[in-house]
Amino acid sequence: MALLSVKDLTVKFAMRDQSVTALNGISFDLAKGERIGIVGESGAGKSITGFSLMKLISKPGYIDGGQILFDGQDIAQMDEPALREIRGNQMAMIFQDPMVTLNPVLTIGEQMVETLRAHRKVSREEAEQIAIVKLREVYIPSPEERLRQYPHELSGGMRQRIIIAIALLLEPKLIIADEPTTALDVTIQADIMDLMLELCTTNKVSLILITHDLGVVNQMTERTLVMYAGRIIESGRTREIINDPQHPYTQGLINALPQQTVPGQPLKQIPGSMPSLNNIPMGCAFHPRCAYATARCKTEIPSTLRFGAVEVACHEVERLKAGEARANEVGLAKAKADGPATSAESANALADTTGS
Amino acid sequence: MSAQTSTTARRSSFWQSNFVYSFRKSPVAIVSMIVFALIALAALFAPWIAPVDPYDQALFDIMDSELPPVWQTYGDPRFLFGTDPQGRDMLSAILYGTRLSLLIGVCAVAVQAFLGISIGLIAGYIGGRLDSLLMRMADIQLSFSTLMVAIIFLAVSQAIFGSDTFNKYAIFMLIVVIGVAEWPQYARTVRACVLAEKKKEYVDSARVLGFGPLRIMVRHILPNALSPIFVISTVQVANAIISEASLSFLGLGMPPSQPSLGLLISSGFDYIFSGSWWITTIPGVVLVVLVLVINLLGDWMRDVLNPRLYKGDK
Amino acid sequence: MFAYLVKRAFQAIAVMFVISVVSFAIQDNLGDPLRELVGQSVSEEVREQLREELGLNDSFFTQYLRFAWKALHGDLGTSYFFKEPALTVIFKKLPATLELVFGATFIIIGLSVPLGVYTAIKPNGLFARVVMGLSIVGISVPVFLTAIAMIYLFSVELQWLPSFGRGEVVAVFGHWETNFLTVDGWKHILLPSIALASIMLPLFVRLIRAEMMETLQSEYVKYATAKGVRPMRIYFIHALKNTLLPVITVGGVQIGTMVAYTILTETVFQWPGMGFMFLEAVNRVDTPLIVAYLIVVGFIFVVTNTIVDLIYGLVNPTINIARMGA
Predict the structure, then answer these.
(1) Which member of C225, C229, C237 has the closest CB to residue A56?
(2) How far lies B209's CA from each of B214, B215, C35, in Å?
(3) What DSSP letter does each residue of B64-108 carry, written as one string?
(4) CB A334 within 8 Å of CB A343
């Protein structure tokens, strides 16, 4: 049985006149010990997904429908006391910016001890001993001293390690990490990721990693969900998604990676930008930015289908595949990595196939 | 990035419509605005509305003294709100008193705004030692409450110049002292705005284009400080009116021959014990309603505009 | 720590210096000490001789130094009216004013923290709306009107509480007479304290509420929730502590304001404190007393502000007093 099973989760925000939909029918499963990544541009709904899993969306946001089955219990239906049992205990969260996550007026020790004592009947001294053990696990030097320090006395990387230690305090089944390294120096980012990977595998903790960095997803996760405008548009094994993306948006994301660009050439960015929540286009939300959009894409929301090794929500995916194959045959297309999104030739080839 | 320019353009018109929208949606704001407009109009046209001239002692008749309002027994139809111990018509006195209170309040805030905005712009734009000196002065000025400074200043000037000279210039003294004492409120907020705006590119580009500091400050930076200035001004007018009333109540403000609301309340205080409640109560109610509606409008505006106001943290 | 203290002390001395110059300038221009001393019926020659003896013909600077020297030794002149050293007169009146300020502070702190926190936690509840509505009315009513209204209601109409004076006081350590040891004293101090608190209380409630609501939106509060910490702990340990930091700074400034409002409250309630005394001194042109009042009040301001700054530094872990001012 899956540890976490999200079914048709819908989250809305109540605005002045109407409510806008931030998450539109999200469904996915997560097995025990599995690590998945959620990727997409900012505004895609990645963070909201992370926070709704703990029912931590603040007003005016609310869960409008769907289920979040965690160990068989539906979090979406839980009241605050029941949620408190789960939060920090069975499910922990690592926030984006360690500079603002820890309370500036409380010592590290106090913020660790309170977490333990919120869930377990332990004395202050016992709690401090556990905290010290966990700080060692995240390679923090002289942890006894750290307990008496305030957050501002520590560097960003150190603080994020402490936050990881707090996440591990109660040996949770699932850790949700929301862009855990975005706010940190590039040099520290890799260290933190390695640390998280190591801790998750040794402790057999499931991980949901929210990020916009496909490289990190590739390194850290087994499966990937690609989000766009509040929906999952493609999901599958990370390797498949990175090597053989199906959705034009995913292809665009991968093509935009600096590694995919010939030095000296501009980055191949996806034209346009993520629509705002109160202005999501009809049909497939990606169609205004998509080179393959047809009349159908403008009116009909694509449903998710199994396509090869992945699940993808795109009307044109078969045609795309066919066009690619044909292009390969004719020998017009270049390297796979170039992708149809930027190659005028393959676009022409695509037009040919549909035309005939 | 490309969307940024279009959102900024959209935001200004959105701001306008949002402002109007929330006004129409807020019954408190509408009622406050109406009440304020009525009081302000009555004050503005006091010389035409008032039944008599309350400053002309020759018009008072001692036989009419301490008459209750018309709706009470012994009320006299000539005096809607009754009379004071001198036989002065309370309605006229209140209309003129409100006029004075509003005038002093608005002018004092104009002085504050002028001083505070100038100092704030200079401190923020020039920065360095001058900035820290000016802000240190602002801190010290604020730690001595306005009322304290005003009481001491007015008390001493009254003692030095004698009450005759003092009374003649009382209105200017009030405006100046309330105006000067509160400049830090504006200066701190404007300075914060300048510091925030100074970092932005458009200020650099204006400088590169060769515009002088004065033009950059007034044309480019100041408009961004408008909404906090607006919110502060509303609250400050309310505070200035209260300050003026308090000073006049202590006998350090307007002279008895030209009573403001504060002095009317004070002159009625002695008669409360004898049952002549209206001499204090009616001007008191007018004062409270006036200040209240201004504060309510200020509150509503703060909620809508949500400006970055200076806060006391370091 | 030491450097910070020194810096703070220097600033306090600078402010006191400005206050003393202003006070001296007032003394120099206000009234004629000669007339107070010998009256009108003395010949011009004798007057000139007296002037010389008293040093009134010296330069402003010399006279100021003399004034400052005496002031440092606790000599601020003799009150014309009381025929006593001005400082002695003020110290007799000081306890009454301080007790009033103490009573008002007690009411303000006791009510503003719970009300501010509650209205921040449940901003849309009926009680919170009532409190917020009352607070804006409270801000709009001048202190003297609140005082008059309370006198009218509780003294004139209901006749429950006295309307003026300190009532029965008990002397504790030397000159200090207190209201807090007799029932009659409590009855007398109740209305003036409420009146004095009436303008600050709504300000503090609104300030604490605004700061608290902002703090409740912060990432660290959200994080504490994500850790499964109980709401009460979040409100009072995580949020309130951060809320009180700016409140302490603003509160320190308000202490100064409160001294000013004692003048109003004491006038309405005929409270025999130094505010009431100051207005009387102004009416009698009792220059030494006016000047002494200025210096004492200035001193109170400077001391409280310095203490508030120090407390802020001690409470806020992100300010390292030890390293500040270096």
Answers:
(1) C225
(2) 14, 12, 68
(3) GTTPPPTTSTT--TT-TT-B-TT--BHHHHHHHHHHHHHHHHHHH
(4) yes
Cβ separation A88–C222 shorter than 8 A: no
Nearest to C111 by CA among C141, C82, C134, C140: C134
Residue B148 phi/psi, 5-degree rounding, is -60, -50
The closest CB to that of B313, out of C139, C246, C253, belongs to: C246
Residue B151 has pLDDT above 80, yes or no: yes
Residue C320 C-alpha, separation from nearest chain A C-alpha, in angstroms: 10
Candidates A88, A95, A106; nearest CB to C228:
A88
Q: To 10 degrees, the CA torsion angle through B128, B131, B133, B134?
A: 170
Q: Does C218 touch chain B (CB under 8 A)?
A: no
Per-residue confidence (pLDDT) for residue B6, from 0 to 100: 46
pLDDT in tens, C96-133: 898 899 899 899 989 999 999 999 998 888 999 999 98
Nearest CA to CA, how far is C306 from chain A (Å)? 22
What number is the ipTM of this complex? 0.83
Q: What is the pLDDT of residue C107?
A: 92
DSSP single-letter state for residue C171: E
Contact C241 A88 (CB under 8 A): no
Q: Is the pLDDT of residue B8 over 70?
A: no
Domain A4-226 class, CATH top level: alpha beta
Q: Where are the domains of chain A?
A: 4-226, 230-267+281-354
C122 near A CB under 8 A: no
User: Which residue ranges form the domains of chain B, and what is each CATH number?
Assistant: 22-54+61-305 (1.10.3720.10)
Q: What is the CA radius of gyration of chain B?
A: 23
Q: Which residue of C has its CA nearest to A168?
A: C227
Report the residue of chain B nearest C133, measured CA to CA. Answer: B296
Q: Tens digits of per-residue pLDDT, B252-295?
A: 888 888 888 888 888 877 777 777 777 788 888 999 999 999 99
pLDDT band per the 50, 70, 90 thresholds, residue C35: low
Q: Do C228 and A58 touch (CB under 8 A)?
A: no
Residues of chain A with pLDDT under 70: 1, 323-356
Most C CBs within 10 A among A48, A103, A148, A159, hence the mutation to make, goes to: A103
Cβ of C279 within 8 Å of Cβ of B140? The answer is: no
Reply yes or no on whether the pLDDT at B205 is more than 90: no
Which of B35, B149, B156 to mutate: most C Cβ within 10 Å? Answer: B156
Tokens encoding B262: 């504060």
Asked if C288 reaches chain B (Cβ–Cβ under 8 Å), the answer is no
Record the pTM: 0.81
Give C231's contacts in chain A (Cβ within 8 Å): 80
